[in-house]
């Protein structure tokens, strides 16, 4: 353990002394290389993470806005029901004969084809 700590301390001391040598003969690095690398990293981050997430969010918002009476939906909690009433923030679902549940609109995760509740 002491040997590893000594090795790390020596390597830090060596690298700091190497990079500290910025005499008249030293040539500086091109800063545009770092900028290009950072820009490429940001583009990869955007196309792999941000863009797909915003696309899913837009699709979910369109789904929530398109819900109408008599649609069959499944909620985020796994409850399947038929929409009886629609308001700005809430839906009233019929999950069984005579049983109605009020849920928030954004809790709907998907719409189902008509007749799915009868098949289950």
Automatic annotation (TrEMBL):
Subcellular location: Cell membrane
Transmembrane segments: 30-50
Keyword tags: Cell membrane, Membrane, Protein transport, Signal, Translocation, Transmembrane, Transmembrane helix, Transport
Main location: membrane
NCBIfam families to which the protein is assigned, alphabetical: yajC
Protein family (similarity comment): Belongs to the YajC family.
Name used for this protein in its record: Sec translocon accessory complex subunit YajC
Organism of provenance: Candidatus Berkiella cookevillensis
Gene: yajC
